[in-house]
Specification:
By secondary structure, the chain is of the alpha/beta class. Helix content is 41%, strand content 23%. The protein folds into 3 domains: 3-85, Orthogonal Bundle (Arc Repressor Mutant, subunit A); 89-150 and 248-270, 3-Layer(aba) Sandwich (D-Maltodextrin-Binding Protein, domain 2); 152-246, D-Maltodextrin-Binding Protein, domain 2, CATH 3.40.190. It has helices at residues 3-19, 22-29, 33-47, 63-85, 105-114, 160-165, 172-175, 205-213, 224-232, 258-270; strands at 52-55, 58-61, 89-95, 117-122, 131-135, 145-158, 180-183, 199-202, 219-223, 237-238, 246-253.
Length: 279
């Protein structure tokens, strides 16, 4: 039996002892009953003795199985108490304000659950973050690996109320006649706001989204994926002008941290491009 499967097999034996059936143990672990039986048979072969007996009324452990289960339970208790004593390590993730932090909440929460870290996510400039997600430009240091991991598809949005009160742009020239919400440092759509055009400049993507929903103007450079819930709810409308813009995204972080590695993989999946060498 593979050493990597031993821990899980012993845990299954304890489940069978507690629940009295392969089916109940399988349900607890989200496995097929046949998988539970197969792994426990392999465990018996590994230790060289019978660990359980089947009967019409259920499954019970043999004397050898009971002794083994008692010993394993003690070892598991030691492992659990040791894990509880390990202090969670602090980890800071910087997210470029031009990237929607709201859209990354599921990934951040999942990382916090899976790894013993106290994860701090910030869009404020910090001196030396453990990991960084940046737009347009990489945050290269000697200690941190940096690579492009994908892009943010950008579009132009506005609230239906705003478009009703003004008009729907028919082409790029019409954009200059609209109040605009601009993301600080954004390069979409590649030119400055013309003189005389009303413009609001915001520091982060989510603030721009909120202002667009409130009818403050059109928002060039909006994150198309983050806008989707608003579009489906009828709170925003797409402005079909200059579609196809993309904001490149870079990730930097130390490869020594499992939590940082996990973040990199999840973010690369989210931004649609797998890291090099991991196809």
């Amino acid at each position: 039996m593979k050493p990597s499967l031993l821990y899980a097999a012993w845990a299954l034996l304890l489940d069978v002892q507690e629940l009295g059936s392969f089916t109940a143990a399988a349900k607890k672990r989200n496995l097929a009953p046949s998988t539970v039986m197969r792994r426990l048979r392999a465990l018996e072969e590994h230790v060289g003795t019978s660990l359980f007996l089947e009967s019409p009324s259920g499954v019970r452990l043999t004397e050898a199985g009971l002794r083994a289960a008692a010993a394993v339970s003690q070892e598991f208790a030691v492992l659990q108490s040791t894990g509880e004593r390990i202090e969670a390590l602090p980890l800071t993730l910087f997210v470029d304000p031009r990237i929607s932090l709201r859209s990354l909440i599921p990934i951040v929460s999942d990382t916090q659950r899976r790894h013993p870290v106290r994860l701090r996510v910030t869009q404020q400039t910090v001196a030396a973050p453990d990991a960084a997600l940046t737009a347009y430009e990489s945050l290269h240091t000697e200690e941190k690996r940096t690579e492009p991991i994908g892009y943010v598809p950008q579009t132009i949005v506005a609230s239906p109320r705003y478009l009703t009160d003004s008009f729907v742009p028919a082409g790029p020239a019409d954009l200059a006649r609209h109040a605009q919400i601009r993301l600080h440092g954004s390069r979409f759509p590649g030119r400055e706001v013309p003189d005389g055009v009303s413009a609001l400049t915001v520091d982060d993507m989510d603030a721009g989204m909120d202002l667009a929903v409130q009818g403050c103007g059109i928002f060039p450079g909006a994150d198309k994926r983050s806008a989707k819930p608003y579009l489906m709810a009828g709170q925003m409308s797409l402005v079909p002008v200059e579609e196809g813009a993309r904001m490149p995204v870079f990730f930097s972080g130390s490869g020594d941290s499992p939590a940082v590695t996990y973040l990199r993989l999840r973010l690369a999946e989210f931004f649609a491009v797998r890291p090099r060498g991991e196809r």
